Amino acid sequence: MYSQHREREQPIFSARAHVFQIDPNTKRNWIPASKHAVTVSFFYDGNRNVYRIISVGGTKAIINCTITASMTFTRTSQKFGQWADSRANTVYGLGFATEQQLHQFSERFKEVKEAARLAREKSQDKMELVNTALSIAAPQDLGDELQSPPVMCVNGPEDKMFRSQSADITLSSEKERIKKMLSEGSICEMNLEAELFTLQDSNSKLVAALHEANTNVEQWKKQLAAYQEETEKLRDQVADLEAHGGHGPSDMLKDELTRSLEELEALLKAKDEEIHILQNKKSEYHEMEQEREEAIHRLQEMEMRNLELERRVQNAEQNLAASLEERDRTESEVQRAIEILDVKLFDLNDLRQSLVKLIDK
């Protein structure tokens, strides 16, 4: 699942910037969304054919914005730019370190915006077909009701046939329920994807820190061994000087060696503390790995649920198509019956007029 997610969401461009959001109360002041510069990346989702801007700070997503053709990135100063996200009902601001970085981000925003517009135009026909299918979706358990003959009345040549109102109301309510279930599934999947992306970003950072820590630990072990060897030599020298019982310059050398020993012992203590801190970080990394596995498991369950919903929608479409075909056939038969009744009524009318004339004679 991890590899599938990486193939689905591919990074296009990344830059580091300070992220801000507009104050929702004043709509004028900027609120910092990150304490320091963070990575802001353009991503392309091949399955959904959409482009997104994502930025993660710590363990939460600061920016998760889907790019549309109506968005515009505005450069308000030499190193600052902004754009509005109507879906999130906010305005994002980015502060870059150099003017060149701002220019590169602005140009890439224009390219991605144009690509999003072209992708939307290409998929417009497909979306119209999907919306049409959803608009006529009906559940399987309404098959018997939809196959029942319609209610009608015949009073003469001008009489018409009409559909049962109860079946239409039930069909409409069931269609709205299926739409709601599909939308809830899509929202949950998006939330899980954002959570998974955050965990993956944290996981990559922790893995890099762990590798670096392991490398540093090996180097520190070598340094500790060298320090210990040097300490032993210095202790031997001090013991030799004490054995000879020298004075004057030897006393000064002894004091210097003692200070060196104290400094080395303090350094060894500091290195031990750093090794202890790195071991604690390693345990935190394992906890993050477990959280990532749980998020992947929830995402798999959500995908299975979406597949089940799609299967139910397909079954409902097939049942509705069969019901509509049966209704059309019934309507044609009823129409023929109406025409026959019209002819019979006309003949009876002629017969009645003939009888009236005979009675008058």
Automatic annotation (TrEMBL):
<keyword id="KW-0770">Synapse</keyword>
<keyword id="KW-0963">Cytoplasm</keyword>
<dbReference type="InterPro" id="IPR011993">
    <property type="entry name" value="PH-like_dom_sf"/>
</dbReference>
<dbReference type="InterPro" id="IPR044100">
    <property type="entry name" value="Homer_EVH1"/>
</dbReference>
<dbReference type="InterPro" id="IPR000697">
    <property type="entry name" value="WH1/EVH1_dom"/>
</dbReference>
<dbReference type="GO" id="GO:0007216">
    <property type="term" value="P:G protein-coupled glutamate receptor signaling pathway"/>
</dbReference>
<dbReference type="GO" id="GO:0035256">
    <property type="term" value="F:G protein-coupled glutamate receptor binding"/>
</dbReference>
<dbReference type="GO" id="GO:0014069">
    <property type="term" value="C:postsynaptic density"/>
</dbReference>
<dbReference type="Pfam" id="PF00568">
    <property type="entry name" value="WH1"/>
</dbReference>
<dbReference type="GO" id="GO:0005737">
    <property type="term" value="C:cytoplasm"/>
</dbReference>
<keyword id="KW-0175">Coiled coil</keyword>
<protein>
    <recommendedName>
        <fullName>WH1 domain-containing protein</fullName>
    </recommendedName>
</protein>
<dbReference type="InterPro" id="IPR045027">
    <property type="entry name" value="Homer"/>
</dbReference>
<comment type="similarity">
    <text>Belongs to the Homer family.</text>
</comment>
<feature type="domain" description="WH1">
    <location>
        <begin position="4"/>
        <end position="116"/>
    </location>
</feature>
<feature type="coiled-coil region">
    <location>
        <begin position="203"/>
        <end position="333"/>
    </location>
</feature>
